[in-house]
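hey
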């Protein structure tokens, strides 16, 4: 029964945490028994079971309970199979979504060598606009996961493609994550390539794209500032923040202007 398998998946994370805390007594139980179930359920025929399996996997990765060898030898190959060009549409959409979500939880080497080539392929998927939209919406997170060199060499060309996609929702998603992409690049790329690209979005024929671009204008401009003098920095959750000055911290001030947070999709003032 699918409901039984779904319920089982919901119990996997707490069991895994218990086994981790009791590791001297159960040194290999998780890797031998539970991890294979999670991997198998990523391809279950039932949608709810697969969703529960994906959520369980993300929790396990978040808690750092999955060994690097299991990620590279068991999880990634399954996701690459599910996101292959000839894969079922529903499986492909789910696979690219989980790839994007787990990228920030894996090592840079694993993401760059195992997942980045497939992500670049999916950005150009001509069959499913849903796949391209997921890639566009999570583009900033992928850039942050692989760093400046891979972003400029492999991802920026794909970002240009998505910013000129025929579907306006794609261009809107790119405008919303523009600050996160810009933050990962060098000042030269920011100035010579991303600035003209941003102007094209702010002049887009679709008003929803233009609105999203205007909302990202302030955060995008902030990426040109020197962090040491401007006090701007990016939090772990991807939001742009202004660090309070030493004077404000010493006076223990609670004025709103002393701590401002701007996300890449937040409304620009």
């Amino acid at each position: 029964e699918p409901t039984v398998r779904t319920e089982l998946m919901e119990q996997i994370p707490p069991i895994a945490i218990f086994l981790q805390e009791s590791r001297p007594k159960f040194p290999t139980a998780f890797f031998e028994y539970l991890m294979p179930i999670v991997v198998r359920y990523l391809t279950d025929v039932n949608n709810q079971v697969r969703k529960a399996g994906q959520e369980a996997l993300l929790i396990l990765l978040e808690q750092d309970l999955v060994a690097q060898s299991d990620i590279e030898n068991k999880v990634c190959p399954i996701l690459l199979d599910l996101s292959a060009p000839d894969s079922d549409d529903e499986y492909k959409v789910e696979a690219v979504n989980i790839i994007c979500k787990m990228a920030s939880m894996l090592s840079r080497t694993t993401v760059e060598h195992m997942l980045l080539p497939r992500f670049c392929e999916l950005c150009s998927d001509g069959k499913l606009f849903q796949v391209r939209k997921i890639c566009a919406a999570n583009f900033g997170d992928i850039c942050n996961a692989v760093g400046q060199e891979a972003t400029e060499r492999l991802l920026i060309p794909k970002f240009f493609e998505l910013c000129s996609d025929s579907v306006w929702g794609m261009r809107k998603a790119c405008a919303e994550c523009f600050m996160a992409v810009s933050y990962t690049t060098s000042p030269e790329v920011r100035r010579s390539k991303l600035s003209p690209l941003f102007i094209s979005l702010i002049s887009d024929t679709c008003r929803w794209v233009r609105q999203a671009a205007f909302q990202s204008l302030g955060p995008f401009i902030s990426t040109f500032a020197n962090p040491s003098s401007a006090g701007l920095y990016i939090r772990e959750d991807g939001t742009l923040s202004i660090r309070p000055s030493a004077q404000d911290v010493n006076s223990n001030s609670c004025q709103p202007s002393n701590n401002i947070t701007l996300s890449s999709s937040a409304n620009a003032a």
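Residues 2-21 form the longest helix (20 residues). Residues 245-269 have pLDDT under 50 and may be disordered.
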